[in-house]
Amino acid sequence: MMDRTVKALAVLMCLLLSMAISPQAYAGSPQEITVTLEVIYEDGDKSVEEIVEHVEAMEDFWAKYHAWQLVNMSQEEVVFRLRAEEVSPLNVLSGYSKVSP
């Protein structure tokens, strides 16, 4: 029950922040937002990808990244993080694999 309440509050907070950040996104004009995606792998490696999103509706934007954890947000940039339960691609290429206990 508590987990569901926390998720609902997080979604509500994101929606309220998105309205405060970009009222023009609700007026129909697309807004440009830089999105940084951080993936933290089990072995501690981190990959970072930066993309530019052209957002017409903030609801669609938040729905697209619903599985990601919001780390930081400003008017121009949003940073999301995801913890992957796998070894990083670089270590896989080096011959390492996940070892189960």
Automatic annotation (TrEMBL):
Domain of life: Bacteria
Residues of the signal peptide: 1-27
Keywords assigned: Signal
Domain Bypass-of-forespore C N-terminal: 33-81
Database matches in InterPro entries: BOFC_N, BOFC_N_sf
Protein name per Swiss-Prot or TrEMBL: Bypass-of-forespore C N-terminal domain-containing protein
Native species: Jeotgalibacillus proteolyticus
